[in-house]
Amino acid sequence: MPALLTDLVSRSRVCLVAFAMLALVTAGCATPPASEPAAVAPEEDVGAFGRRADSAPVELEQFGRLAGRWECRVFERLGSQDWAPRSGSVVWTWFYTLGGHAVQDVWEPRAGSSRPFGTNLRIYDTERAAWKSVWTASNRSDFEYWQGAEAGGDIVMQTARDARPARIVFSAIGANTFEWRYERVVGADWQGVLRASCTRLGRLR
Length: 205
Prior knowledge:
Blueprint: H1 2-30, E1 43-44, H2 61-64, E2 68-77, E3 83-85, E4 90-97, E5 102-109, E6 118-125, E7 130-137, E8 144-151, E9 154-161, E10 164-171, E11 177-186, E12 189-200, E13 203-204
Parallel strand pairs: 1-13
Antiparallel strand pairs: 2-3, 2-4, 2-12, 4-5, 5-6, 6-7, 7-8, 8-9, 9-10, 10-11, 11-12
C-alpha cells in the first residue's frame, strides 16, 4: 500500500503541473493583443532644407521658416463667386539656397494632374526693406517679377499682370500650417482668384 500511495501522489503531482501549464497557455492565448501604436507622421529634419547664412539678413527667415514640405489644397473662385476645390493636391517644397542667402520653393501638383510645375527664387533687399522674387513654371519660357514685404504678420507680394495689379498674400503662418491666396484688382477692390490651405508634411525636429 505505501508504494501504491506513493505512485498515486506522484501521478497527481504530474497532473497538477500539466493542468497549471495548460491554464497558463490558455490565459496567454486569451490575452488580447497589445494595441498597435497610432500612426505618427514621420519626423522632418528642417536642417535638411538648409539654413540661413550668418551673413544673410535675419528677414530671410520670414520665408525661410517655411523650409520643408507642405501639402496644399487649392480652391478657385467660380463665376458664381463661390469657391470650389481643385481636384488633387499640391506638394510645396521650400528650402534655403545660394549658400543660405536666398529661399527657393518648388510647386509640384500630385501625380495624375496636368497642371504645371512652378518655382520661385526669393531674396531680401535690406536697402529697400523688401522681398524680391522671380517666378516661372513648366509651361512658360519667361520669368515673372514680384516684390513685397511683411505687414502685420502677413507677407504680401505684388506684380502687374496684363497691366492689372496682382498680389499674393501669405497669412496665418504657423509652425505647421499657413494660408495662401492670389488676388487681382476688379474695379477698385482686390478679389480672390485662388487660395490654398497648406499643412506641413512630417513633424519638425
